[in-house]
Specification:
This protein is α/β, with parallel strands linked by helices and about 400 residues long. It contains 16 helices and 14 strands. The protein has a 6-stranded mixed sheet with strand order 1-2-10-7-8-9, with helices on both faces. A 4-stranded parallel sheet has the order 5-4-3-6, sandwiched between helices. Strands 12-13-11-14 form a 4-stranded antiparallel sheet.
Length: about 400
């Protein structure tokens, strides 16, 4: 299969970006290793999906009829197929769940796709896409397809070309299209390189399948890494995962949020939840890397809605002790609020929001309630502020 991946790299090079791989000194220092980021969030359409879609359409163009192609996706696959089809001069119909974000719908339309909103789940959208395929359109599966896997495998070739002595590669897993392609390319080129898959604990389908030695369907919970919450891996993907992936680990939501925030703050890299899970696996300790190792984290995409990004940043800052929220019962006398704010200023905390309310049920007439949101440095800083407020006689609720 490596020959097909090498051929794919040549065939698709004009339709994709060869994304950079950069070393992060900050993350490297944290883990006593050389940690590199393969930035597929900078790829066309904002994710790796354009690679497989482009290869599929270029190699099967003569088999596609006048009806064009049809795919089902809530986001990245939709945009990848739409743009690849537009570049190839092929009509593309994309079935998206009714809850798909407006921004992703508009992005898909802008890339040339015709949108059909159908279903309350991706499974229902996939079924609708298959029905449309029976009407003369060519169905493009998001991951369980040899051409799609081959196209995604070009990332593995680029990693080894840019860092020939790579020791470990961490890759997100959803349905398995990305990791099965990357692992095949790496293991058939340099079998000594370790490939580790990372899944959201909210939907551990590949891990559960491996534990059961058979493809297993799991229940899925809501996750920041919605791009990889696939309830069961693809058949051919699972076969390649079993053959070439050394280990599969999972990460919880709090670590995904922390990874997104760290990439944004330290490297100015915007990663979606699915793209941040490799770093989350280092942060939660599920992957321990030997000192001095050369490690590559595949940042698979950066398509995250702005409102969700705001919530992710806020949650990440709360979990890291970067935000403190408190209620203070304050004597309703001149200077009381000024005294409280002066104490907070002395503790080097920054006031983000303040709400002063005199009309609170069950509070004495001479007492007011003050709600504060403070920017802090760490959990230790929060404890210091709390201790100082209590020492000064303030009644507080955190």
């Amino acid at each position: 299969m490596i020959e097909h991946i090498q051929n794919a790299a040549k065939l698709i090079r004009h339709g994709i970006i060869r994304t950079p791989m950069v070393c992060s000194p900050t993350i490297s220092k944290m883990f006593d290793a050389e940690v590199y980021l393969k930035l597929e969030n900078l790829q066309r359409t904002g994710s790796f999906k354009i690679r497989g879609a482009t290869y599929k359409l270029l190699t099967r163009q003569n088999e596609i009829g006048a009806g064009g192609v049809v795919a089902a996706s809530a986001g990245n696959h939709a945009q990848g197929v739409a743009l690849a089809a537009h570049q190839a001069g092929i009509a593309a119909t994309i079935v998206m769940p009714e809850w798909a974000s407006i921004s992703k719908q508009e992005a898909t339309r802008n890339y040339g796709g015709e949108i059909v909103l159908f279903g309350q789940s991706l499974e229902e959208s996939l079924q609708k896409a298959r029905e449309l395929a029976e009407q003369g359109k060519t169905f493009i599966h998001p991951f369980d397809d040899a051409d799609i896997v081959t196209g995604q495998g070009t990332i593995g070739l680029e990693i080894l070309e840019d860092l020939n002595d790579t020791d470990i590669v961490l890759v997100p897993i959803g349905g398995g299209g990305l990791i099965s392609g990357i692992a095949t390319a790496i293991k058939q080129t340099k079998p000594q390189v370790k490939v580790i898959g990372v899944q959201a604990a909210a939907c551990p389908s590949a891990l559960t399948s491996r534990q059961n030695n058979a493809i297993t369907r799991v229940d899925s919970k809501t996750s920041l890494a919605d791009g990889i919450t696939v309830k069961q891996p693809g058949a051919m993907n699972f076969e390649l995962i079993e053959k070439y992936v050394d280990e599969i680990v999972t990460v919880e939501e709090e670590h995904i949020a922390a990874a997104i925030l760290m990439l944004l703050e330290r490297k100015k890299v915007l990663a979606e939840g699915a793209g941040a899970v490799p770093l989350a696996a280092l942060l939660n300790g599920s992957v321990v890397i030997p000192a001095g190792s050369k490690v590559v984290l595949v940042i698979s995409g950066g398509n995250v809605d702005s409102p969700l990004l705001g919530r992710i940043i806020a949650k990440g800052m709360l979990n890291k002790g970067r935000i403190m929220r408190i209620y203070v019962r304050l004597s309703d006398t001149p200077g009381s609020l000024a005294g409280l704010l002066a104490l907070i200023a002395r503790m080097k905390a920054n006031v983000l929001h303040i709400y002063h309310d005199r009309n609170v049920r069950d509070l004495p007439i001479n007492i007011s309630s003050v709600e504060l949101e403070l920017e802090t440095r760490s959990m230790e800083h929060i404890h210091e502020i709390r201790s100082e407020l209590l020492r000064a006689g303030y009644e507080i609720i955190i």
